[in-house]
Write a structure and sequence with these properties.
Elements lengths: L1 H21 L1 H9 L2
Amino acid sequence: TWLFIKDAITIACSAYQSAVMYRPDYAVNGFKAP
């Protein structure tokens, strides 16, 4: 359902923000990698 997808995106964004806070270099390298 749409609500489930919205919740999944919210959780993913929260997890991403937490990862960036603790491992900024890892997050940047992950997105810059070819």
